[in-house]
Amino acid sequence: MSALLSTPHPPPSTVAPVPASDERLRQVGRLRRLLARPEFGALSGTALVFLLFGLGAGGSGMFSAEGIVNWGTVAGFLGILAVGAALLMIAGEFDLSIGSMIGFAGMMLAIPCLYWGWPVWLAVLFAFATAMALGGLNGWLVVKTGLPSFIVTLAFYFILRGLSLAISVLLTGKTIVSSNGDAVLHELIAADPLVQALFQGHVLTGLFNALARLGLLAARDDGAALAIGVPKVMVWWAALTAGGAFVLARMRVGNWILAVGGDANAAKNVGIPVARVKVLLFVFMAFCATVFAVLQVADAGSAAADRGLQKEFEAIIAAVIGGCLLTGGFGSVIGAALGALIFGVVQIGIGYTSIDNNWYRVFLGGMLLAAVLFNNYIRRRVALGR
Amino acid sequence: MSNPKPDDYILQLENISKYFGAVIALSDITLRLRRGEVHCLLGDNGAGKSTLIKTLAGVFTPEKGQYLVNGKPVRFRSPREALDAGIATVYQDLALVPLMSVSRNFFMGREPVRKLLGVLPVMDHAQAARIAAQELAAMGIRVRDADQMVGQMSGGEKQCLAIARAIHFGAHVLILDEPTAALGVKQSVNVLKLIHRARERGISVIFITHNVNHAYPVADSFTLLNRGQSMGSFAKRDVSKAEVLDMMAGGAEMQKMMAELEGVTI
């Protein structure tokens, strides 16, 4: 294909008569192809952000191993949500309830562990099952009623937040749960080999320590690396992003997701199970929110009913910066991951500079606006050639 | 190309009626499509063309009358069932997604799959691009790049893409809903050529239009609809273009109107 593209267009005088359809097709160059990719905006945004902070905070330790782990963790948490949000947005829907769902799923993990004496692995399964069932309900309502997902999931934004608070107060008398008598959540999770391996702590700790001994990484007094390792949230982020991007680009379902978001009616007319695709993506979104919740509970050692505040907006922003069209049908999971990365770098990076922390929201808002304008322009000019 | 045999009907509607509440959308319509012919369904706005198409496509089930495919009565409960019987409808909206590539659109819902590393089922993009380009080329449309977005194509090209797709996926009967309605002169001719090519490949076509100038050159026979009723079916050899136009627009009345506008032909 690329060989075909790089062939220069022969001058019109030497061409045999071509069908009328061809004469107005311009030769598309490599640059134009790159520009037409949905994640191009996020890619240039990432470059810009790294350039700015490289210049402004280069010597501050922001790009040391500990610094990278710092903003990588923030980006990772958001990035996990952004995968689900991007796929859902490409299919033409939103989920505003995921922030509340994070708080809810955390409670659904902590309460069975601490108050009902369930094994941790079972409580984790329970949290996933309830959240994903609620995600399915969200999707089913959207598909069945034909109401905008904005309204349906806004309702669940309130319902789930209220439920988390009410249930935790009802069952525990508190809104932040970390222990109950002898049972301490952090210890329980650490003692469950499967859940600990999947959700708690770091990987590559040995490698980091070895590098520290070689003097390649900053070390503590005892010789261990200052950065403990790569947090598991970053591993989840990378794995979900890779999986999501693969599904979208390479699998049949990926084509269905694009078609459903691009034109649901057309998709239905060619036999794509539109409702099933949408409900499935709502369930996947809930899965991502629960991964976030379990990682957070395992990391903090507590569940709180007000966790996940504003995460729904941050996830949507990451997806939009990543090149997803709000109207659906176009977007990229890789782009959304870059959007989350921009978020993490800006939110944490600003603390490494002398700039007041409050500016980070201003910066992100501006970034969002720029991304939307840029993406719309690109879509019109390059992708559709208008 | 085989000439249509006189009574070999691939598709028949016999005395079909369809009501929407008090509205009689179709009344006692008979339409017979011979194998391998192009049959034009002509009618002005509000004649019931859309209802008739949707009945053929399995969207509506008629209240009265019979629907036969290859001489056997059928009762389609969904468009999918009609599609499985080889009856493909290309609506005016074409069921194409502008922000997807030509090949992704071509195989939308029926993606070719290969096994990655022997296990993982993935969409076979290379094959999709090759077949899409091939099928379009067979229809006389050259697409240099099957990764090109459909939104970049002209109206005529999109129409051709939708038709080529229906043919590729095994349509024996092609129902085209006003394929030339939104097109310019040259593009319309391209679509008409495409209809002719489909016929050469043995596909039976129902071509819905209100433009006699488009219908007459490609059609083997005509059915005229007016206000939900059939004004009869005619073989091309039995009627002239002027007669068809007359019947379609209500005869004498139309003549009078056209006489007032000098030199007008429709």
From TrEMBL, chain A:
It is a multi-pass membrane protein. Keywords: Cell inner membrane, Cell membrane, Membrane, Sugar transport, Transmembrane, Transmembrane helix, Transport. It is found in: Cell membrane. The chain crosses the membrane at residues 40-62, 68-91, 98-118, 124-143, 150-173, 224-249, 279-301, 313-346, 358-378. It comes from the Bacteria. InterPro entries: ABC_transp_permease. The keyword Transport applies. Part of the binding-protein-dependent transport system for D-xylose. Probably responsible for the translocation of the substrate across the membrane. This is Xylose transport system permease protein XylH. It comes from Ideonella azotifigens. The lineage of its organism: Bacteria, Pseudomonadati, Pseudomonadota, Betaproteobacteria, Burkholderiales.
